[in-house]
Amino acid sequence: DVQLQASGGGLVQTGGSLRLSCATSGFAFDDYAIGWFRQTPGTEREWVSTASSNIGRTYYADSVKGRFAISRDNAKNTGYLQMDSLKPGDTAVYYCAITRRRYGSTWFSEVEKFDFWGQGTLVTVSS
Asked: Using an 8 Å Cβ cutoff, are 36 and 45 in contact?
């Protein structure tokens, strides 16, 4: 069975850093792209970043470009999101998810393309 577990969230001040991890099991990790999304109460889930499965390609939402870095360690079946220069607007529950549905020009940012989701980890950035 597919399992994803996000961790690494916490409370930081503006300008601080956090590294989120997504530990996975129960599937062929190398065959899936891994994405990060975030959500605050009363809002729709927002795409943050995605790492492809086979060509080392990465994608970032404009809101985090230059501040966040996505990576993956296929040997450990784990994805990461390094978050630097954090802002209060980054406060959210962050979720990791996976997909093999790499079709369409914007597949990497579409919530509905991602098939399996982990529990979120809360990131709070104080002003």
From this structure: no
Tokens of 61: 């939402």
d(CA 84, CA 103): 30
Contact between 50 and 109 (Cβ < 8 Å): yes
Give me the phi and psi of 106, to 5 degrees please: -125, 30
pLDDT in tens, the chain (127 residues): 999 999 999 999 999 999 999 999 999 999 999 999 999 999 999 999 999 986 689 999 999 999 999 999 999 999 999 999 999 999 999 999 999 999 999 999 999 999 999 999 999 999 9
Q: What is the DSSP letter of 32?
A: S
**What length does the chain have?**
127
* CB within 8 Å of 28: residues ≥ 6 apart: none
Question: What are 95's two structure tokens?
Answer: 């979720």
